[in-house]
Structure formats: structure tokens, C-alpha cells
Give the backbone structure.
Amino acid sequence: MDLLIFLEYQTARTDYIFHHIFHDILGLKIKYTTDKSFFINYKLPKIQYGFKSICNDQTFFFQSVDLLFENDIKKQEIVVSSFRDYKIFFMCESDNSVFPFDVFAASFYMVTRYEEYVALERDDLGRFLADSCLAVKHNFLDYPIVDKWIIHLKQILKENFPSIKFKDQKFEFINTIDVDSAYSYLDKGVFRTFISVCKDVLLFNFKNLIPA
């Protein structure tokens, strides 16, 4: 069964995050409409995402901030608050909104690592500073914040649309090791190995001399 989503207008950002959440994670089929009359008269599961609710019935309204309707990349004003047992931001003002924050914009911000594109402070190699991370500043770096938001969203949809079938979630842990040069001296020959060792000694790269 499809979930109908009403958008005031559709963008690449709304396509990306709705597909990621509803299709990739929750396993739902979704379709969009910008036709108010069609949406209001639609009798199957539906939600609205926008700045203002278009109807007064029990339609699920998720109030939006500007982020998913923007085309440029710019620094966002982030005010972190708490809701239930997790952190939230991009707060909503409407009492009719299902969540007190824009869960879709917040998820987009986190999943795309938006903050890394606009950060001014960088290390000597031009990399994003870990201390600048929103999750570090507000102590949720080790907390699966987006997953928690989506689980809450799933619970609400399940309670109000019992006919919706979600896919089972299967998680897999894959451990990776970042090795810049796994075989620094392998098959280089005596002379090349000697030169490489001398170079590491002169440059104080003693860690390269330690056998793996």
C-alpha cells in the first residue's frame, strides 16, 4: 500500500530524504502530490509536509522549516532541544505538527553531513574538525539519533495506519581498518628498502619501522 505525501512543492532534497526514510529504511512505497483537492479526498494513508496545514481533519501534518526547499548550501541556525529521550533541532511552531521539530530536515542535515560543507574552521589538511560537530557539542555522537527519530515515526504511523506493512530491519556490523600503506617495504628489494628506512629515520617516521 502506498503512502501519499503532500508537498507544497517537490525538490531534490525532499525526494532524497523521503526515499531514504520511507523506502530504504521503512520499506514503504510512496507517491507525491501537490494537488490539495486530491490529497484532501484521498482515503488511504497520507501525510502532509509543509509550512501550514491544508486541512482540519486528522491528516498527519509535519511542519517544515526551509532547509529541504532551499537550493543553496549555507550555515543553518541550530538550536538543540530535547524531546522524549533524544535531542532534536529545527523546531516547529505549529501545535498541529506531529513532531515538535522538522524530523525530515533534521535527518537530511545529519545524513548528508550538511555541517561539514559549511564549516569555516578546518585542520591543516582542510578537513572538518571533530570538535565542530553538532553531535560532539551536544553529547549525542555515540547515539543513533536519526534511527531513533525514524523508529518514533514508524511507531506513530503504525498506530494510526494499521494496514501499513513495514519491512523487517536487519543490521550487519562490518569492521574496517584504514591502512594508508599496508606493505611499505614488501618486494622493494634490499636497496630500496634501505633507502625507505633511512628516509623514515630522517623524518622521524618511526611508526613505519614497527612490524605490523
Remarks:
- The chain has a mean pLDDT of 86.
